[in-house]
Amino acid sequence: MNKTIVVVLQLVLSLLASTILAADGSGNIAGYGNTVWGITEEEVLKAEPRAKKVDKPTTNEASDIISITIDRIEIELTEFQVWFKFDSKHRKLKQVILQSVNDLSPAATFATVEKLLTQKYGAPTYKQAGKNVS
């Protein structure tokens, strides 16, 4: 259960990327690190040298595919694993998920990361207090 709480930090950097890309059509909106929303799996691997393909990609109920990860990064003294999610139809980056590796205080980590993302990207478009921010 701690792993679930540990970060429903699907502080989904997603900014609902697919919606933004559809409205703007630019395809050059900054995503995680050196990535931009809407790039392919191969482009993510080129943009993020620490990124690697997972042995067994997973899909969710919407058939999105998680096929690339970064095993460990550190943000504000907390280690995270990064998961890159792609839409199943076009295999374009639509969401980045940060999951705390061994967080002892999920609520504090969530608040810290939420604050950092808000400072960098602005106010969230969706917020479910303490659980989910997009």
Protein described:
The protein is an alpha+beta fold. The chain has one domain. The protein has four helices and six strands. The protein has helices spanning 2-5, 17-24, 41-47, 106-121; strands spanning 52-59, 65-75, 78-86, 93-100, 127-128, 132-133. The strands form two sheets. It has a four-stranded antiparallel beta sheet. It has a two-stranded antiparallel sheet with strand order 5-6. A hairpin with a 2-residue loop joins strand 2 and strand 3 (78-86). The radius of gyration is 14 Å and the shape is globular. Residues 1-26 have low confidence and may be disordered.
Topology:
Layout lengths: L1 H4 L11 H8 L16 H7 L4 E8 L5 E11 L2 E9 L6 E8 L5 H16 L5 E2 L3 E2 L1
Antiparallel strand pairs: 1-2, 2-3, 3-4, 5-6
Supply the key terms.
26% helix; four-stranded antiparallel beta sheet; alpha+beta; 6 strands; 134 residues; disordered N terminus; two-stranded antiparallel ribbon
Short account of what is shown:
The strands form two sheets. Strands 1-2-3-4 form a four-stranded antiparallel β-sheet. It has a two-stranded antiparallel ribbon with strand order 5-6.
Side by side, the strands of the main sheet go: 1-2-3-4
Uncertain residue segments: 1-26
What fraction strand?
25-35%
What's the N-to-C terminus distance? 22 Å
Structural class: alpha+beta
Count of distinct structural domains? 1
Supply Rg.
Answer: 14 Å
The major pleated sheet works out as: 4 strands, antiparallel
Overall geometry comes to globular
Helix fraction by DSSP (H/I, runs of at least 4): 25-40%
* Strand count: 6
Number of alpha- plus pi-helical segments:
4
Order of helices and strands: HHHEEEEHEE
Mean pLDDT: 76
